[in-house]
Amino acid sequence: MTDDIILKVEGLKTWFDTPKGTVKSVDGVDLELKRGEILGLVGESGSGKSITGFSILGLIDKPGRVVEGRIDYRGEDLRAAGPKRLRALRGDRIAMIFQDPMMTLNPVLKIGTQMIETVRAHRKVSRAEARARALAALAKVGIPHPEERIDAYPHEFSGGMRQRVAIAIALLHEPDLIIADEPTTALDVTIQSQILAEMQKLSQEMGLAMIWISHDLGVVAALAQKIAVMYAGRIVEHGPTAQVLDRPRHPYTRGLIDSTPMANRRGEPLRQIPGAAPPPLGRPEGCPFRPRCPRASAECLHEPSESGTDNHGWRCFHPMEVVA
């Protein structure tokens, strides 16, 4: 593994044992992320995107378990790392931004208190130095008057500002990798645009690698250089964002694009993907998208292998034709 590759995930499987059977939430995921790259991980709710992120960080609780695969962070297999090593990495070298900032923020503690404790959990520095680092992080994400706002409580911030604080906490130690789990979904489009621009800028300036989990193709198109489309626990298509969105090969990717509102289809009804994603314990045989796919055939009763190139790959027996 070269120094440029921050994260490499191979054959990741995360399953949940339930009284009714085993739920294969992540079923053989491969990802690779280099320094300064942003990867958009997209798909419908329940496709396994968040579980993939939690698995990388070692945040899967029972009855869940990572049953197979390798998670390499800069050449170190995180699956072989003990709890102490994982605690040292989380929040320091690998950080996570949650969809709801109140999952990060304690409502009864001032912002400054929480940020200072986060700094001192990983660095032996004075409170004054930790506070200075917290102020710098707040300024970096665009919090106005950070010297005043650092002594405020979370409820004194708007939703957009709370999310900026959560991002600032993730940036405190200038990590190599951030996993962002739909952090702008609940925000209005103006604030969302500001945060996306800020994250893109920080990634370029700091060489920060990022996995941006989202169901919104518009957000991913504006932010990420690479995209991985996930369905029923598997990556069904991946490649450079512009190439995948302009020339999708998997019918599911095509369906996601067609169901997105576009200015050039004003007045037309939105196209929909028929049916619904399979239930956790009712995954179909063969290709998981087969029951909803207009191109399905008897061949799709078998598991499709990956086709394409290292640059752009897909799992489909009947890929979409490329329109010149």
Brief summary:
The chain is α/β, with parallel strands linked by helices and 324 residues long.
Q: How many discrete structural domains?
A: 2
Question: Tally of extended strands?
Answer: 12
By DSSP (H or I, 4+ residues per run), the number of helices equals: 10
By CATH reckoning, the class of the largest domain would read: Alpha Beta
How is the largest sheet built, in terms of strand order? 6-7-8-3-9-10-12-11
InterPro entries: AAA+_ATPase, ABC_Ni/Peptide_Import, ABC_transporter-like_ATP-bd, ABC_transporter-like_CS, Oligopep_ABC_C, P-loop_NTPase
Protein name: ABC transporter ATP-binding protein
Keywords: ATP-binding, Cell membrane, Membrane, Nucleotide-binding, Transport
Family: Belongs to the ABC transporter superfamily.
Question: Could you explain the architecture of this structure?
Answer:
Helix content is 30%, strand content 24%. The chain is of the alpha/beta class. The chain folds into two domains: 5-93 and 175-315, Rossmann fold, CATH 3.40.50; 103-172, no CATH class. It has an eight-stranded mixed beta sheet, with helices on both faces. It has a four-stranded antiparallel beta sheet with strand order 2-1-4-5. Strand 4 (64-73) and strand 5 (76-77) form a beta hairpin. Helix 3 crosses helix 4 and helix 4 crosses helix 6. 40% of the residues are buried. It is a peripheral membrane protein.
